[in-house]
Amino acid sequence: MRALANINVFKLDHNQKWTTTPLATVIFTKLKNYASSWLDSYSLLSTLTDVVKTGRNHFEEHYGLPCYEWYKSKPKQLQTFNNAMSEIGNVIGSKLTEIYDFSQFKYIVDVGGGRGVFMSEMLKSAPNVTGIVFDQPHVVQAAQDNNEEIKEVRDRITFIGGNFMDNVPSGGDCYTIRNVLNDYSDNIALQILKNIANEMNGKSKLLIIESKPNTRFGSLFDLLLLSNLNGDLRGEDGFQKLLPKAGLQINKCIKSVGDNMDIIEVFKVE
Predict the structure, then answer these.
(1) Which residue from 31, 102, 122, 259 has the fewest beta carbons nearer than 10 Å?
(2) Is residue 243 a contact partner of residue 249, using CB atoms and an 8 Å limit?
């Protein structure tokens, strides 16, 4: 309890009894699946020294499959993971719509959009906008089978299955990608960015939404990404270097969600 109190999960009241904090309330209610989804990842932190030396994560060696293939082979863990992505999409989406005007667009494409919860939050803030949620076919199928989470705007969402390593849907005047690029090395992230850039025009915008690397949460999250996926939290400085290789450029960076996340607004260089 004392260890968790040091990171503000619990606290001692004036009677010297342990009580929960607002952070604990969020973790145990709105983000309970998100917190649980990382439990299988912490054991790999013991391999960090070798990961840093070799540049290769040990997830497949430890679990027998690459990270996302392992999730697909474990229905219970996959369900927890998908629930986690919906939870964080709801929390982040509701915050981002307070500071960014999505009504300026007509057609939003959310790349790696999961079950559509983040898209739902964007569309609820912008009644005249429609959207495409693009993700792997099995994710899209699950979203279509159970759309209770997005029922309020379901008639304005189209789900498309595919692989963003190959291409993304065309026609969006806004493309969003949230907590996806941080899962990949620069080479793979660059390919995804190029695929998005291929579908953009001079008036399109790309919104990259990711955790910042230099926060208390971001610094730990960055280690988990490295040890599990060879991923990387790049932050604004990292994207300043990577985006031009895809023919893209940062327009502005908006700080959000308790200064833990950035919205990086990007346009295509023509």
Answers:
(1) 259
(2) yes
Question: 10 Å Cβ neighbour count for 202?
Answer: 8
Q: What is the C-alpha to C-alpha distance for residues 186 and 234, in angstroms, rounded to an integer?
A: 9
Neighbours of 236 (CB within 10 A): 16
φ/ψ of residue 40, rounded to 5:
-75, -10
Do residues 156 and 131 lie in contact, with contact meaning Cβ atoms separated by under 8 Å? yes
In the structure encoding, which two tokens stand for residue 28, read together?
A: 């145990």
Nearest to 103 by CA among 128, 121, 120: 128
Q: Which residues contact 221 (CB under 8 A, 6 or more apart)?
A: 211, 233
* pTM (2 d.p.): 0.81
Q: Are 107 and 174 in contact, with CB atoms under 8 Å apart?
A: yes
**Dist. CA 209–CA 221, nearest whole Å:** 15
Positive or negative, the CA dihedral 186, 187, 191, 192 is: negative
Q: Which CATH superfamily is domain 84-268 in?
A: Vaccinia Virus protein VP39 (3.40.50.150)
Tokens 């955790």 locate to: 211
Domain layout of the chain by residue ranges: 1-31, 84-268
**Rounded distance between C-alpha atoms, residue 224 and residue 67, angstroms:** 12
Low-confidence ranges of the chain (pLDDT < 70): 4, 7, 22-43, 85-86, 88-90, 146, 256-259
Q: How many residues does the chain have?
A: 270
What integer pLDDT is reported at residue 6 of this predicted model? Answer: 72
